[in-house]
Amino acid sequence: xxxxxxxxxxxxxxxxxxxxxxxxxxxxxxxxxxxxxxxxxxxxxxxxxxxxxxxxxxxxxxxxxxxxxxxxxxxxxxxxxxxxxxxxxxxxxxxxxxxxxxxxxxxxxxxxxxxxxxxxxxxxxxxxxxxxxxxxxxxxxxxxxxxxxxxxxxxxxxxxxxxxxxxxxxxxxxxxxxxxxxxxxxxxxxxxxxxxxxxxxxxxxxxxxxxxxxxxxxxxxxxxxxxxxxxxxxxxxxxxxxxxxxxxxxxxxxxxxxxxxxxxxxxxxxxxxxxxxxxxxxxxxxxxxxxxxxxxxxxxxxxxxxxxxxxxxxxxxxxxxxxxxxxxxxxxxxxxxxxxxxxxxxxxxxxxxxxxxxxxxxxxxxxxxxxxxxxxxxxxxxxxxxxxxxxxxxxxxxxxxxxxxxxxxxxxxxxxx
Length: 417
Known about the structure:
Helix 3 (60-71) crosses helix 16 (400-412), helix 8 crosses helix 11 (307-313) and helix 9 (259-270) runs parallel beside helix 14. By secondary structure, the chain is α/β, with parallel strands linked by helices. Strand 2 (16-21) and strand 3 form a beta hairpin. It has a 7-stranded parallel beta sheet with strand order 6-5-4-7-8-9-10, with helices on both faces. Strands 13-12-11-14-15-16 form a 6-stranded parallel beta sheet, with helices on both faces. The chain has a 3-stranded antiparallel beta sheet with strand order 1-2-3. The chain has helices at 2-7, 30-38, 60-71, 104-112, 124-129, 164-177, 186-195, 217-231, 259-270, 288-291, 307-313, 324-328, 342-348, 366-375, 378-391, 400-412, and strands at residues 8-13, 16-21, 24-29, 44-51, 77-82, 97-101, 114-119, 138-141, 180-183, 202-204, 238-243, 274-278, 298-300, 316-319, 335-338, 362-363. It has 3 domains: 2-29, no CATH class; 41-207 and 398-412, CDP-glycerol glycerophosphotransferase, N-terminal domain (Rossmann fold); 216-391, Rossmann fold (3-Layer(aba) Sandwich). It is globular.
């Protein structure tokens, strides 16, 4: 077998296809190799494919767009890309959605035959797999942040968040492939224009995932019951959701939340029995058991597929720099910042505006966090949330999914002017 492979073999080497003939290695860029393979695959005019965080499970903006499509009973074939490494529970997905592989040739083949591609992240990894956008395809980029303070892409001066190759692919391919970029505010419009290396249409629809904050009390109660059951938490308890962000240098010493003091302080301020649900970034969640000792009072929510359901089910939230806190503010429930490395992070990555300009009390250590909780004034906080949303030109109203699917119907019916 080894002898035969030395005579002739075809293997993937990062973003290249390596063909070996009698010991001579010929490397071809994957996108060129696959372009020939997929060039004859016809586009299915009613096919839509979703990419959520590079092949993650059912969540974020793609989920809520898909559900609006299903609700309208539109005649589209829906496909969702998942990594083989994900523990895929098909019960998470509506029966109308077919799961396909995010990895390698299958993803490229499925993408090649899709009329519409919907993604909430850069498609760089798919481009490395060999995907190249074809004439007749439309790509909607929903993004995954919301009024976030962290600078992104072109706004990060030294590109410390990624390799030069990643930035080149984003600029030269992904940004050029985009046909529409979704926004929820005047603030995001300006950020995208300056940061995304993109000069196409920016459509102010709101973020579909945030429609959940405008659901009826009965619907929210049902979601809370589902979340608490999944986390193994009794409904008579309260949850504070801790959602720290990822560090570009991959450091882990910044997640030093004193959970015991936090629970004691929350009980003193609000009463009740509090459970801390920890939701780590996808790049960090593999270290969850290394960083925290989980029990009945500290639960691991890192693998729950939909963070929006966690947010609407929590009684309070804490983050450092994650934009999820700007989704959470739509609930008007208490939100706090705990950022032990604030000064260093602001220098390395950079912010669009100071954390102190948000409605969230800012703490650099556990003592100040607890003091901020004790001093928290709900009336003042809600007023500041309203003013913050107004100043950023935010237009979230619970109808984002409807607007996006209105756009999709026009695209699929070729009615875009």
